[in-house]
Amino acid sequence: MHALVKYPDTERYAHCIKASKAVRWDIETDVVKGRSFDLSRKYLPDGLSLVQEFASLSDAEKRLVSQIQGRTYANIFGLVERFITAKLLEIGRDHWFGDQNALEALVRFSDEELKHQALFRRIEAMVAAIMPPGYRFDIDPDAVARAVLSKSTWAVLVLTLHIELFVQNHYRQSIEPDGELSALFKDVFLFHWKDECQHVMLDELELKRHDAALSSAERDRAVDDFIALVVAVDGILQMQAGADAAYFCTICGRTVAGTEADGLEKQFLKAYRWQYIFSGATHPRFQKTLGGLITEGQFQRIEAALATLT
Ligand SMILES: [Fe+2]
Ligand SMILES: [Fe+2]
After folding, report:
1. What does the alpha-carbon distance between residue 106 and residue 232 come to, in Å, rounded to a whole number?
2. What is the pLDDT of residues 13-48, one digit of tens each?
3. Distance, CA 54 to ligand 2 centroid (Å)?
């Protein structure tokens, strides 16, 4: 007779499966619901777009900035979820045999990230249909995923945890009372957030499981990999801030040049760094989880790297 093997974290994986089933949603019937976007509403809340700091712009221009940033939000998530899905499928191999709750939880997680990619492609297409031509997002998700996956698994899992935690921050920003925010975009934040809550638990389980197998020297190199990934993310944000500021100048209906144009690009970059780097890096749960894995010196190395991105 075979004894049933007891796996230490199996209840936690089972909890994630239960949560995944409870919140299961559909792109068309739960999120889009036959609606479309219109250009009279903001797409990102002020707490994310930082539009109040775009001091030279009128209210209508600030709304346009939030719409461009909303479109970029959809594209950036379509990008990061490509490598997250690939990494989950890769580490899911560790659970082929053994704890089947862990395997199911990771399969569901991968499936949900595929759905998120589809959601954000849908959002990009809907926004593209109503915004003037000229928007550019020239970053290839597959090329980014290949580059990210060339780094250590520890670093990719830390980056993933960071992303899933900032999605939670973004949802909190989006539920601020804001009569001008698109109801459809608000629902995109809401439904994405529902999945990310259980994903964060899985990120932490997988990160701790993987971390336990590393030597001190391997972990130290992985910290460098994580810093390199954050710097690479910043490179993408710099490129997109330039593209989005140029798009704004082309479609805003007046001449924007010189110091105003330079200032706009800086503001776009500041907003993107807040959305995709600092709203995660400053998240208390991220700091606590990461701090529990690395030394004070390694933590300071990461903080020093982040400090250069301002
Ligand atoms: Fe996601
Ligand atoms: Fe996720």
Report:
1. 26
2. 999 999 999 999 999 999 999 999 999 999 999 999
3. 31
Tokens representing 194? 């529902």
Beta bridge partners of 184: none
Kindly state the DSSP code that residue 35 receives in the 8-state scheme.
Answer: -
Residue 88 — φ and ψ, nearest 5°?
Answer: -65, -40
Residue 259: partners with Cβ closer than 8 Å, 6 or more residues away? none
Nearest ligand (C-alpha, residue 109): 2
Burial class of residue 137 in the structure, from the number of CB atoms within 10 Å of its CB (0-12 exposed, 13-18 middle, 19+ buried): buried
- What is the Cα–Cα distance from 32 to 174, expressed in whole angstroms? 17
Long-range interactions of 290-299: CB distance < 8 A, separation 24+:
290/158, 290/161, 293/207, 293/208, 293/211, 293/219, 294/219, 294/223, 298/219, 298/220, 298/223
Quote the ligand 2 centre to 198 CA distance (angstroms). Answer: 8
- Could you tell me the distance, in angstroms and rounded to a whole number, from the CA of residue 196 to the centre of ligand 1? 6
pTM of the model: 0.95
